[in-house]
């Protein structure tokens, strides 16, 4: 048992750190939930890709470095520590790509992955529907067989990034007569600019169009854009769902870096004309708990990475992650806003918002954590039933 | 002892509720957020007509007050309906001018406040911003020793009339527009300004507490209604025990904050020297309960609660802003046990 | 709307305060959960009764003062502020007596109430059974008709005070064929020294026999000890249950007085050889929250008392009280133990335990709060369903 | 990096688990509480045989250590089985003597500790009591500057061998017997005692964290089993969502405290100058998680959990005591962010 990095891993860290120091924009990019910011973030994906930093864990043939999980964790730690921009490609890289690696054929991978790695194609997810939030099995949008492909119809919602993205992926009901609701679903990719697609951006709490509704009216999708077997979409999607909740969506580097910035904020105070009240031990304790929580999450992830490297796998345990990081993220940002005193009220768009509004935007972002990727209520049910073995109930 | 609202209080609340419901408050708040203050000013006029703004102004200057219990009733309704504008600040400015005892100043400004023709703003001692200073007719600022509890051997504070406001700094509650007051002429100076500023801050914190309670009530009511209708896994999510318990805890927090707000009103009404403590306790309890209500509303509405399209977002975001306005939880807790 | 006491109420307060100052024992009595302490507390009841302070809200004919609710609240505030002993008669006075006033006949009142008021007869409650904790409707103990009365058989448990008490009251199944489980129950009083009764004391967390199991084997109870109609026990008991959860069991004076002692502890430090760390604002905030919580509970009760005085009544609202005071009581005592530092670990029986062990015993006592009188989980269900109108579920 | 226990660690845990299960730990703890230390001493001898006590003692004095990772494994098992006695204090005393570098003292006391023939106690710097001082063979006390972080310009601390112990002060955990050490002879004096005492306090806090985790695991497991069997309203109470979520939160807290304890072990093993911070983080996380587990166990067992007849009460009460032993939550949090 150890926490030691190899010389090769240390070298990888140094390489990543140096590259980031040289390339991370000195001023933060505009919010990626705006048209201007989306374009700037797409450009940043291109920069990352040019030096093979956009998808470090992918095989080299698709633009990656074949990095191990541990190397990926190292890269993420350095990435967040460097204050690098948010990843506009994250829906594709974290949700779609793992599914493609597991279920797609070679032609699909060769066609889809390189443009995802370069930021040329930005993907949106299209999971939810108005009547199917956490209860994905009750999806109603349909895929109807037609010559050479499928016709998609129905409505998707909470499609993150879809306001500005190029393509989307999701589940559609291809067999309305299947005996159980989660059978008869098919996993499909489709373009957002195709005929029959209407994208209606939805503003999140702070008004930015972070997601959209998609209205689909007989949108043609060729057979080659089905992932896995038709009717097997639920099974295909589950690997992605685990990923979203588990290791990849919220890398520990995000929280250790935020906890460090929080500690710095506590020590230095919110603004030039103010001073921190470091004698307020109630606030200090909340900073400490964020520091401890981020470290615990990092160590827990190291343990999981070690387990995977030793041939193990992560199943329902990903629900532990989901609840932990989402609660931690909110506590961390609430503490930051409280440290900011009157400046904590400012919107991230206020000129005078501390840290270019990153605490304010991070707080808004954190509030979604316990909701998406399966609400924390659902996750606690899963933990109780699958990890603790408690009897299922009607909830 | 009859620690219950009287029939007249309840009638007053009902009539405000009716008037504000008719005004379409979400639309008014959205317009205010976008810089169109006309609908908000129209509501302001109606509030003045209903006597709300006169409640903080003494009779000799055209008011009906000060009447803290009635203010609590009114501000709870203002919170329930998310009415925009520097209502707290105007009432606090009135309290300051009334307490200051400068007859000329009072005669200059108070009648307009009572009549609803003067919208005032006042900068809180712990903030660089004055709420809606760009939309206010009169922006007051106190500087120097504004804490009001340092005894007599001080030069005291200065009261300034600002010459304008800097650029609007948007709040996370879009209906709150923050700006730094600019320049200003001195209106008064001395220990009496310190005392008046301290009293005004108490009145402001008290009004925020009442307003927050109203915000919390709306958040709870709307969420209860939503979870009764929304189905997942074949049943209304309101049948899930986790949902029930979270809403039950929200109700408990609001129900036990309510009497603290009323007790603070009575303490202010009687000139109790411990009123500041009572106000601080009410503020922290009401604002924490309301923030809990906002987190609950957001979580139980799920993604739809996370959108600004849902009018409820106006209340969700206001809950966070009120939590720190006119006294952070930490400052309020410090005050409760201060010697 | 006001918070003003009348001159008569002020006079009543002064009278109570003066009497308590003259009579409250200067050294605390031994724990009432011991044989020695039980006897001492019974003696204290006698002292209270001698000057009509044991049941102030009862009519004068039964030993009370006909005090109003507000006077009762005043008395309780003074009682706890004076550090007066715990009430060993509380099961009788708070749970049985209200039922007698509502459902008993004159003969029963005249027979039962005076000896309850004087402490001559101490009552234990006998609600729970091993398989019926929060789910009282599933009671199994039986009352079988016999000549001139009933024969009680079965097992009761968590019978508080029963280790040393004289008599008990509870529900028994008199009609096993009733169509619904909460019908066919009868409310009965019975002696604990009767033939067929076996009392087995149970130690609570700190080992003290605060409750007992009762084994009943054909225990004869005459008809005159049935309260209300046979078969109507559930309805009769519900008034008592509301009382237990609501106003009477936990009077605000208990918490306002504890919050004051907590504030004093925070200011002065736990022991002569130690000093308080009043710069720890995290602990200070917890003290503050206890002070605010106790005040809120007091004011909430004043509002309820005003409502009742104005002809209103308290129904499911008593569940709000139950959850609030029980959570407050734990938080208050946890804070006290944390302020005590290393002394917080001491048992209440340790010679060196601060405040004669009252914080330690109070903490142990507080832990039972969310469990008895209907668990807080049940109370939250009641609040959600009856006060908020949420749909019933299978939980 | 392989941040996972090795097979040997897991084998060690399993063999301790087996041995302690066979010893009937609840009976041993109840006897210890009643002043009958013989069964506890028998378990102590078995623990020594299994090498547990040698883990804190270096090889040259008859030990196998110091081996913090193995200590974490062992103390988690000691907590799981609520083994009574000054185990933490004996290991801390060994760490103190090892760190002090006084060869005579070390040769005098360490071999007996490693062999299990010397039961030691050590008073924590923030407490007047030494755990089980009445039952210990050797009671050590440090006085003066014991904080270990005040730099060189100090007279340092004094290490005393107590002449005995005052009357036992029962803890709220009946298996913990507290007493003030009496009198004593000076064993060592100077800044090196300060440093050794500081190191010993870190090792003690670390051992408590591991022990607490074990206590928490047992509380969770027993409660999960109980709610699966107990029925109310016609169903197992483990089907209620409120019950499920409370247990899920308990598991989360324990699962995320565990790696902090292991990381603290590695920090101590490598002599990391930041080990104190890692220990403090582990202690607060493990002890808070375990206290949460105790509150959960008590609430979900209902009245039966509130009795001392149920053996689980031994774990419930230990959770509270460990929370403050060798560093209150507040002291630990202060340490984590100390400059």
From TrEMBL, chains A, C:
Cofactor(s) needed: FAD
Residue intervals of the Acyl-CoA dehydrogenase/oxidase N-terminal domain: 7-120
CC terms in the record's Gene Ontology section: plasma membrane
GO terms for MF: flavin adenine dinucleotide binding; oxidoreductase activity, acting on the CH-CH group of donors
Domain Acyl-CoA oxidase/dehydrogenase middle: from-to ranges: 124-218
UniProt keyword list: FAD, Flavoprotein, Oxidoreductase
Pfam families associated with the record: Acyl-CoA_dh_1, Acyl-CoA_dh_M, Acyl-CoA_dh_N
Domain Acyl-CoA dehydrogenase/oxidase C-terminal: 231-388
Keyword Repressor: no
Family: Belongs to the acyl-CoA dehydrogenase family.
PANTHER family: ACYL-COA DEHYDROGENASE, ACYL-COA DEHYDROGENASE FADE29
Protein name per Swiss-Prot or TrEMBL: Acyl-CoA dehydrogenase
Species of provenance: Streptomyces boluensis
TrEMBL record, chains B, D:
Domain Acyl-CoA dehydrogenase/oxidase N-terminal as annotated: residue spans: 7-116
Keyword match Thylakoid: no
UniProt keyword terms in alphabetical order: FAD, Flavoprotein, Oxidoreductase
Gene3D superfamilies: Acyl-CoA dehydrogenase/oxidase, N-terminal domain (1.10.540.10), Butyryl-CoA Dehydrogenase, subunit A, domain 3 (1.20.140.10)
Acyl-CoA dehydrogenase/oxidase C-terminal domain residues: 201-328
Transmembrane segments: none
Domain of life the protein comes from: Bacteria
Cofactors that this protein relies on: FAD
InterPro entries the UniProt entry points to: AcylCo_DH-like_C (IPR036250), AcylCo_DH/oxidase_C (IPR009075), AcylCoA_DH/ox_N (IPR013786), AcylCoA_DH/ox_N_sf (IPR037069), AcylCoA_DH/oxidase_NM_dom_sf (IPR009100)
Record GO terms (molecular function): acyl-CoA dehydrogenase activity; flavin adenine dinucleotide binding
Family statement: Belongs to the acyl-CoA dehydrogenase family.
UniProt name for this protein: Acyl-CoA dehydrogenase
């Amino acid at each position: 048992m150890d926490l030691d990095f190899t010389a090769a891993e240390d070298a990888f860290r140094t390489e990543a750190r140096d590259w980031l120091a040289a390339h991370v924009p000195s001023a933060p990019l505009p919010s990626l939930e705006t048209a201007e910011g989306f374009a700037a973030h797409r450009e940043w994906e291109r920069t990352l890709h040019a030096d093979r930093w956009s998808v470090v864990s992918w095989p080299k043939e698709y633009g990656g470095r074949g990095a191990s999980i541990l190397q990926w964790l190292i890269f993420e730690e350095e990435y967040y520590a460097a204050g690098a921009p948010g990843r506009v490609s994250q829906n594709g890289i974290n949700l779609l790509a793992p599914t493609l690696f597991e279920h797609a054929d070679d032609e699909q991978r060769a066609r889809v992955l390189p443009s995802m790695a370069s930021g040329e194609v930005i993907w949106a997810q299209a999971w939810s529907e108005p009547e199917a939030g956490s209860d994905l099995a009750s999806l109603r949008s349909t895929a109807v067989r037609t010559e050479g492909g499928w016709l998609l119809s129905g409505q998707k919602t909470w499609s993150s990034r879809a306001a500005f993205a190029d393509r989307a992926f999701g589940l559609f009901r291809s067999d309305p007569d299947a005996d159980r609701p989660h059978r008869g679903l098919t996993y499909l990719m489709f373009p957002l600019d195709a005929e029959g697609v209407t994208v209606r951006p939805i503003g999140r709490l702070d008004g930015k169009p972070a997601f959209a509704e998609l209205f689909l009216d007989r949108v043609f999708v060729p057979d080659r854009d089905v992932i896995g077997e038709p009717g097997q979409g639920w099974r295909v999607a589950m690997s992605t769902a685990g990923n979203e909740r588990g290791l990849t969506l919220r890398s520990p580097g995000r929280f250790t870096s935020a906890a460090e910035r929080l500690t710095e904020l506590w020590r230095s105070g919110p603004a030039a004309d103010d001073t921190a009240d470091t004698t307020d031990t109630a606030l200090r304790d909340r900073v400490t708990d964020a520091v401890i929580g981020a470290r615990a999450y990092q160590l827990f992830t190291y343990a999981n990475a070690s387990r995977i490297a030793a041939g193990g796998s992560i199943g329902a345990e990903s629900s532990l992650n989901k609840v932990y990081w989402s609660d931690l993220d909110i506590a961390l940002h609430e503490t930051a806003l409280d440290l900011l005193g009157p400046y904590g009220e400012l919107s991230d768009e206020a000129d005078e918002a501390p840290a270019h509004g990153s605490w304010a935007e991070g707080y808004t972002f954190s509030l979604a954590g316990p909701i998406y990727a399966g609400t924390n209520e659902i996750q606690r049910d899963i933990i109780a039933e699958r990890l603790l073995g408690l009897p299922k109930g009607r909830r | 002892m009859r620690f219950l609202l009287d029939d007249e209080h309840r009638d007053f609340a009902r009539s405000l509720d009716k008037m504000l419901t008719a005004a379409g408050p979400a639309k008014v708040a959205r317009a205010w957020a976008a810089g169109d203050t006309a609908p908000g000013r129209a509501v302001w006029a109606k509030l003045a007509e209903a006597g709300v703004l006169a409640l903080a102004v003494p009779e000799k200057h055209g008011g009906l007050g000060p009447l803290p219990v009635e203010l609590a009733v009114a501000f709870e309704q203002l919170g329930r309906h998310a009415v925009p504008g520097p209502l707290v600040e105007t009432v606090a400015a009135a309290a300051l001018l009334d307490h200051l005892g400068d007859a000329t100043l009072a005669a200059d400004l108070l009648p307009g406040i009572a009549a609803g023709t003067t919208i005032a703003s006042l900068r809180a001692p712990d903030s660089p911003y004055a709420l809606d200073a760009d939309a206010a007719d009169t922006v007051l600022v106190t500087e120097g020793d504004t804490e009001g509890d340092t005894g007599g051997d001080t030069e005291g504070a200065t009261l300034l009339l600002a010459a304008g406001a800097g650029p609007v700094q948007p709040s996370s509650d879009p209906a709150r527009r923050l700006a730094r007051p600019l320049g200003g002429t001195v209106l008064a100076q001395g220990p009496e300004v310190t005392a008046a500023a301290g009293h005004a801050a108490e009145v402001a914190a008290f009004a925020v507490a009442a307003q927050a309670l109203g915000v919390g009530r709306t958040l709870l009511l709307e969420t209860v209604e939503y979870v009764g209708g929304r189905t997942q896994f074949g049943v209304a999510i309101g049948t899930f025990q986790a949902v029930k318990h979270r809403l039950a805890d929200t109700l408990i927090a609001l129900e036990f904050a309510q009497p603290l707000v009323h007790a603070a009103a009575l303490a202010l009404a009687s000139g109790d020297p411990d009123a500041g403590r009572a106000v601080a306790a009410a503020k922290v309890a009401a604002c924490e309960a309301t923030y809990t209500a906002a987190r609950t509303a957001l979580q139980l509405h799920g993604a739809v609660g996370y959108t600004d399209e849902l009018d409820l977002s106006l209340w969700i975001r206001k809950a966070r802003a009120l939590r720190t306005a006119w006294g952070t939880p930490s400052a309020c807790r410090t005050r409760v046990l201060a010697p």
